[in-house]
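Appendix B, Record 12. Input sequence as logged:
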Amino acid sequence: MPMRLNLKQKIVSFLIVIMVLFQLNVFAEAQLEEVKEIIKNYYVENVDDSKLNVNSVEELINNLNDPYTAYFTKDEFDSFIGSINQSYVGVGIVVEKCEEGILITSVLDNSSAKQAGILPGDVIVEINGLSIVDRSLEDAISLIRGEEGTYVNLKVKRDNQILSFNLKRLKIELATVKGSLIDGHVGYINLMSFGENTNSEFLSVYNNLKSKGADFFILDVRNNGGGFLYTAVEILSNFIGSNTCVVLKDKYGFQTKVKNDVVPSRLINERFILLTNGNSASASEILAAALKDYNKALIIGNRTFGKGTAQSFFVLSNGDILKLTTQKFYSPNGNEINKIGVLPHIRIYEDIDKVALMLTEREPVADKTNYVKLVINGKMYYINLKNDTYFNKLISSINNCEMYIGVKNYWVKRDLNYYKQKENAFVEVKRDINNKIKEIEKYHTVDAAKKSNFNTKYGYVAVSKLNFRQIPKLKGKVLFVLNKGTKFEILESSMGWYKIKYNNRIAYVYGKYIKLTK
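Logged structural output:
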């Protein structure tokens, strides 16, 4: 009897296993068909049937050869969204791999690690009794994180001591935007991700810096891999209002011009420089492309990553989520971004932030000596000639702009290409400024001598017709025209120009076209 009972139990157990496996297969097949249908209808490109004829969702997604399409369980999806929002469950430490284990480089305020007394420089050697000396950084982070409210035990090495800490895992939310004031008037804004609250964080940082005196801003999206498309649209609306932020196109060629539904009451008008590099992707590229199209920022750095595709989330019947590439996106002017990226106005590979900061000088009010003015896309940027390294990098990288050198109270236009051909543009500009100063001083000396020896008070027109101008410049407004031989009173002279009086009207005329008389 016992043997029969055992046999019966085994048969029942076997049947249960068969039924469970059968149900799992049925669920898996249904799930696979569901994903296939979504891909057929919504994937950004038409998919060949041979790629759809597979036995698993994993194989199906692999066949798309699309790094941005992914399958998530509910927990995996929550972690993915948390990474965009800079939100996760942990103990509040920043770590990196070292020879002895995992080095704690910083401890976040208001975290369980901070409250327990963990310090930067501590080295984690055990997590929950497991040695992590030979484990990867990713493994260690996975062991530290877990469900909110649970505990993790860390053994850390501090000097020659081994200390044990029992830490509660808490939800930690990091800012996606940080800012600082530089040189008293430059607002530096580091935008690290495009999360759900990033626009409000951006405005808070921007307004705070503005209240402290910032009148020029540097917006940094280097190494920002993107986030939510609508967040990029929200941020852009602060600059461009109700204009198109991005153009989306699906597999059927249908285009959508995306604008923000809510337009801010006050738009941002301050000058902005945007910093980009090869890791600026997705939403960062939407931001960069639109700011470039609308001439709202000068872009400095490297070509962006070139991820010009948008993904949509599909909740499946089993609660899992499919992240699927459904559209390509283009700049407001229709420029393609996918696999191309956004080109900066000034392409620089090193010291990007240093070069950008050099362009944030305020306009010199009086003496302009040793300043350079660049006019780029109709906007003026001023440089104080203090650092030859960064200046030379800028000049070698910049194109299509007007250049002026400051000489006393004047701006003197120069040829940018002339300096680009020089081995050391900084030295050449300095030399040109000094030479111009000498010319001016020479003119002043000659004019002073002329004034002291000048007994005549009159002049007359030596050409058929002569323009008399409002200011002593050839492009100055013409006040009146006098014919040859017309006599006028001379009041003073400077740098080849004469200030004259005719019929009680004051004007300026260039000395080359007049004759002097007593």
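The domain at 454-517 is CATH 2.30.30.40 (SH3 type barrels.).
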